[in-house]
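Hi U.,

Before I forget, here's the chain from the pilot set. I'm dumping it here mostly so it's searchable later in email.
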Amino acid sequence: MVKWFDSLSTTVRIILLIPIWGGIFSGLYRIFKYVEGDNKNVVTLVVGILCFFGIGFIFSLIDLITTIMNNKISILAD
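Structure:
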């Protein structure tokens, strides 16, 4: 999921992070980043679960801004 999302064009990533459904993609990105990554940061997993089930709107806005500025999701996704 992480490699798939990172390989998309910036325009498609911005569309997927629109706050209506962006919380789902933000949460899934962080959960899969935790599962697939070598660095097992529990904060990434917890934030991913919270994004998926609760505070996804806030993180989708943050992820949208960081994707526009840096071309990647970077806040609490390491």
